[in-house]
Inverse folding.
């Protein structure tokens, strides 16, 4: 019987780390090599334990996920990196892939899909969600208006669906306070006094799927 696939998690969001830990512990053929909130604490563990797969947040405090991915490749050549993003942040993910990542996943990915992706990456194959690639190609999320971060775009889509802050937080694996802060930023960037007006203005600017223009 082959040894279980060892997985190390690097993400600054405690809720995400705990959720991924639960996912991994439910899989008999996977084992958790550790969870870390930043690259600086994770890289020594990568060198020591040489995990099979690292789930790496693309946006980390201190050393970026991009630089951390390069370091993983340098320090543990046999380790595969899967980039984790709250939404399809094309520019950063492309840089992660260029740095040596073997693919990427949205943090909203369901447990079984994520576990399958870990197994696929371990086998040496690339992991790239086709639906996300299609969305990037159409450019539907950035047709106009102010520049938004990946998480702001994800929160905006949650507002468009009529979700509460708590529901958006659950969907994106964020804290409610973080979502609240992103909503405040959207109100400011779109110069709108309410959540409803934010959504209306975003549609008018062609920033949401199905928007005109």
């Amino acid at each position: 019987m082959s040894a279980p696939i060892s997985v190390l998690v690097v993400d600054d969001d405690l809720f995400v780390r705990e959720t991924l830990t639960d996912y991994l512990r439910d899989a008999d053929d996977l084992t958790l090599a550790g969870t870390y909130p930043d690259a600086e604490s994770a890289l020594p563990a990568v060198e020591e334990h040489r995990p099979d797969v690292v789930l790496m947040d693309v946006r980390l405090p201190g050393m970026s996920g991009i630089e951390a991915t390069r370091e993983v490749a340098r320090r543990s050549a046999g380790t595969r990196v899967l980039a984790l993003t709250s939404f399809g942040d094309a520019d950063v993910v492309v840089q992660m892939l260029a740095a040596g990542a073997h693919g990427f996943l949205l943090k909203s990915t369901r447990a079984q899909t994520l576990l399958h992706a870990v197994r696929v990456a371990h086998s040496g194959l690339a992991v790239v969600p086709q639906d996300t690639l299609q969305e990037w190609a159409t450019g539907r999320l950035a047709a106009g208006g102010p520049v938004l971060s990946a998480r702001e775009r994800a929160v905006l889509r949650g507002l468009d669906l009529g979700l509460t802050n708590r529901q958006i937080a659950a969907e994106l694996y964020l804290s409610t306070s973080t979502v609240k802060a992103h909503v405040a930023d959207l109100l400011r960037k779109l110069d709108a006094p309410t959540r409803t007006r934010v959504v209306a203005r975003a549609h008018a600017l062609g920033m949401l799927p199905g928007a005109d223009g």
Summary: The beta strands are 5-10, 30-36, 53-57, 80-85, 103-106. Confidence is low (pLDDT under 50) at residues 137-143.
